[in-house]
Design goal:
The chain is an alpha+beta fold. Helix content is about 40%, strand content about 25%. It has a single domain (about 1-115), classed as Aspartate Aminotransferase, domain 1, CATH 3.90.1150.30. Strands 1-2-3-4-6-5 form a six-stranded antiparallel sheet. It is globular.
């Protein structure tokens, strides 16, 4: 499952990967800003995703597998312990896209245009 998530993230425009913290925490970045973190060696498939604060609260109330971001700003990040019986892959990709879009939109237009 982790490979599918990584492949999806890297299919997004201008997305890159990195291991900025250690050899096991994989990050997906857009314009060098993180939109996903995931321990690729953990038994559980879990990831941190950026999220609009109001939507983050809504998701946490609705899904047991979505918690405030572990080791992250809990207002702006969620940790999702992927559970296919609770969240399907299509919805997980939507959450990843939401995170990507939030980060992408925070990158100054000048920087984005310089890379296009």
């Amino acid at each position: 499952m982790k490979c599918i998530i990584q492949e999806y993230c890297l299919s997004l425009p201008h997305a890159t990967e990195d291991f900025p913290f250690d050899d096991k925490v994989w990050t997906g970045k857009v314009y060098n800003k993180i939109f996903i973190l995931m321990d690729i060696f953990a038994d559980e498939t879990a990831m941190n995703l950026k999220c609009d604060p109001d939507y983050a609260e809504e998701l946490r109330a609705q899904y047991d597998c979505i918690k405030p971001g572990w080791h992250m700003n809990k207002k702006h990040w969620n940790t999702i312990a992927y559970n296919p019986s609770e969240i399907d892959l299509k919805f997980l990709k939507e959450l990843i896209q939401h995170s990507y879009d939030l980060v992408l939109n925070s990158v100054p237009k000048k920087i984005r245009e310089a890379h296009d």
